Recover the amino acids of this structure.
């Protein structure tokens, strides 16, 4: 039997992996230390131990930098 859930809190900037809506993920933990994540918009749910679970993805996560490319602008009058 699962323990009682405590301290539900919204995660700012989190995007639901199912419906892709921003700021609708609620996280709580129960008496046994199991973490529960759910979306209040679509009902998506994920359960697991905090060490095994991943934090909700956010819109402000770092992305790999895009490699730059050098270009040369040529004035047609210089030909």
């Amino acid at each position: 039997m699962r323990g009682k859930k405590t301290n539900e809190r919204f995660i700012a900037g989190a995007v639901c992996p199912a419906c892709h809506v921003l700021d609708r993920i609620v996280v709580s933990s129960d008496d046994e230390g199991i973490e529960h994540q759910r979306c209040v918009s679509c009902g998506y749910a994920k359960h697991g131990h905090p060490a095994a679970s991943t934090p909700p993805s956010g819109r402000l996560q770092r992305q790999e930098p895009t490699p730059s490319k050098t270009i040369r602008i040529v004035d047609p009058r210089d030909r």
